[in-house]
Specification:
Two copies of one chain form a homodimer. Chain A is an alpha/beta fold. Chain A has a single domain, classed as 3-Layer(aba) Sandwich (Rossmann fold). Helix content of chain A is 46%, strand content 11%. Chain A contains 13 helices and five strands. A five-stranded parallel β-sheet of chain A has the order 2-3-1-4-5, sandwiched between helices. The longest helix of chain A has 25 residues. The N and C termini of chain A lie far apart (57 Å). In chain A, 37% of the residues are buried. Chains A and B meet through helix 3, strand 2, helix 9 and helix 13 of A and helix 3, strand 2, helix 9, helix 10 and helix 13 of B.
């Protein structure tokens, strides 16, 4: 592919080959329209473009968009849902948060619950966590044999390839934060009485596995960045940058899809006559 | 109940007894904070209150809110979803548009598809059409015997009463427009190339049944306004009033529910120590 000039997607897409996640600066702000205030304002200004593009996607009813969000606790998946997915129209958008599998989910293939949440034609689906949890948590905590999780990367690529063939455009954002940023955010949850309910002591315990998570995330972006379903590594230490960047990635993607209103063959003069008063 | 001073809900709630829908002025704007511009601005200002109340509802995870929207074609159900439900957080909100029943839906009791779309604890669900379609369309078009649809009013009241007992607060808004307003909106759809895809000639055909629809809507609000699930008749000829009013009804309802953050028994000093650098 020719490089896209000024495209945020080309700036944030995972480079081919061996990935060194430590080399991606989580505090960076590439192509940001300004500092914090200007960038927050630019994020809100996405709303009009997104609304128009989404309306056309919905009217066209041929394709759909899947936005996958991954990242460690406090990386900002929920924040992106609020501040970016919240800019979209609720009638054309579904949000699914994938938590620890329920007994029913665990009794099925790991893609079972994913397939049930895929977007219908014309819709945008956002996943807060996804099928990628199934190559992260079991790998970090060694809850299933390596042979089992290791084959999932190919399964995921095949699944996403078929999904793409059926008309779903896939956008995957890995929200990348530093170890110190996670500490700050966990402390902030403790400090703020309106955020304390989100706090689980287990979140601190999980920090002991930080390096193992980095290994698992590295394998995820390295093994599953494909032409039809690339991973974008979004620097997420700055919430204002993270929100703008995911919004811009979605906007660029929808603009490239360029959905069209369906042609109509309405006999306009006759219909207008039928609606003339007193009818 | 004592009258609620300055409550929009008490102003728009269906009065007990026999309803005369023709007596409800669809162009009225009771308790509006101003004219068009001021009212549109007030609608946007609902966002902060709604976000805070919804966050508390979500954190509390004990109760839920169901917003039912009914109204004839072009009354503005979709507009309310965009402009009011769009103010809510997408992670805590589901939107379901009930269309002509699919073969699978038609093979079940009419409440089957409704039950599947009810809000989980902590969530807000918005219904674009609802179980009330099943006492409107079959009644207007006489597709099922009267004995069958006539018993549905009691069934619906029993269903909503049980739902309320289980912790779901129910808000039902009938978007009331005039015959002339519907004409204007259908003509606007024909005129605007970006709206033409929504136009169906069947929408004009249905206008021949206008009076029958008014009869069916009258029976709906008269038979199914209960203490736990009142109907509000929202004057909807002015889109700016309709959006503000539904937003205000939802805001009043959530404020009355007054959801609370759950109490936590976190040992804050110990947890903060666990998070001290370098950990």
């Amino acid at each position: 592919m020719a490089p896209r000039q000024h495209s945020l997607r080309s700036a944030l897409a995972v480079a081919p080959g061996t990935v060194n996640l430590a080399g991606y600066d989580s505090g960076d702000t590439p192509l940001a329209p300004g500092k914090k205030k200007a960038t927050e304002s630019a994020t809100l200004q996405h709303a009009d473009d997104l609304a128009q593009l989404q309306e056309r996607l919905f009217a066209e009813r041929k394709r759909s968009l899947l936005l996958v969000l991954q990242g460690i606790d406090t990386a900002g998946k929920g924040g992106v849902i609020s501040h970016v997915v919240g800019l979209l129209g609720p009638a054309g958008t579904t949000v699914t948060a994938f938590k620890k599998p329920t007994p029913e989910e665990a009794a099925h293939h790991f893609l079972w619950r994913i397939r049930r949440a895929l977007p219908d034609r014309g819709m945008i689906a956002a996943f807060d966590r996804s099928h990628y949890e199934d190559v992260i948590v079991p790998r970090v905590h060694e809850t299933i044999p390596q042979a089992e999780w290791a084959q999932r990367y190919d399964e995921i690529n095949a699944f996403e390839s078929a999904l793409s063939d059926s008309g779903t455009v896939i956008v995957k954002c890995f929200l990348n934060i530093s170890y110190a940023t996670q500490r700050d955010r966990l402390l902030a949850r403790l400090d703020d009485p309106t955020k304390r309910w989100k706090f689980r002591e287990g979140d601190i315990d999980e920090r002991a596995y930080w390096s193992d998570y980095q290994v698992a995330y590295t394998a995820m972006v390295q093994n599953c960045s494909t032409e039809v379903a690339p991973w974008y590594i979004v620097p997420s230490d700055h919430k204002w940058y993270r929100n703008w960047a995911v919004g811009e990635i979605v906007r660029e993607t929808l603009a490239e899809m360029d959905p069209q209103y369906p042609a109509t063959d309405l006999d306009l003069p006759r219909l207008a006559r039928r609606l003339a008063p007193p009818y």
